[in-house]
């Protein structure tokens, strides 16, 4: 190409036309030179010889490349909003899931499906009964998801640069999701204990403070983290499957990694469904450890069910192999919109905040 052989002097002179050039070629050259002089260091050859980059005016800023110094804050704010909305919107289904995972439920709390369960709970226990414990859940979900998404995004980029420089690594995505889960569960485990005890049928707790005080006085502070190891055992593979599936689907549905709401919703929903179905047995054990279900305790020799091995053994003694999949329908139904909401809201706020930062920087 002729431009590649020109020296800095010919660029500095900036001839508008020359031998052998048509008017159209001269106009194209002028446009390249003007753009190059503005971008290059002092209008040198490196800037002049770079062809103009075509950008789609509707594509917006590249929200995956956040401004330096604002990345962590952006991810934390977007993650906190996504976490709160996700848990608030799906809380009634979460209440049903907790009850359907009960190993020996009261006859009045035996449900065939999610819709029937919601209808019966509202009809017999009141309109707001499925929402009991929502306040403590929303309070914990904000900081937990802020840590979760900020840690994931940071580690994903760092590990991808090491494992697959300049590209996307599924191993890095899975590893980043596992580490982020450690922080998320540390913040959410006490919340899960209180929430699930308030969700159970005939729960004696009507206020969060009553539940916290009773657990603290009767079982000690350790009760708030009794299911932590089981929670991690469940959530580490869950999040590894979840993030790897999400990023894999994004490569197919959104290869340019632009803000694309439909791809975020679809990828999030599919990733959540696959991960939820695969880890249901662990979720059943976690629920048992959190609630210390009184009828199930009669099948256990020790006073309290402590540890994952004890929970697995108790579940099998009470209900056999099928007990490990109690509530799988409710869990998948909960997780599909839950992860779809989380990812779509998170990506929206990440895009919105980044766009505002770009506009602010452009106006300086």
From TrEMBL:
This is Solute carrier family 25 member 28. GO terms for molecular function: ferrous iron transmembrane transporter activity. Belongs to the mitochondrial carrier (TC 2.A.29) family. Solcar repeats lie at residues 70-158, 168-252, 259-352. Residues 1-17, 37-46 have a biased composition (Gly residues). Keywords: Ion transport, Iron, Iron transport, Membrane, Mitochondrion, Mitochondrion inner membrane, Repeat, Transmembrane, Transmembrane helix, Transport. It catalyses: Fe(2+)(in) = Fe(2+)(out). Its main location: mitochondrion. It holds the Pfam family Mito_carr. It comes from Oryctolagus cuniculus. Mitochondrial iron transporter that mediates iron uptake. Probably required for heme synthesis of hemoproteins and Fe-S cluster assembly in non-erythroid cells. GO terms for biological process: iron import into the mitochondrion. The keyword Acetylation does not apply. PROSITE patterns: SOLCAR.
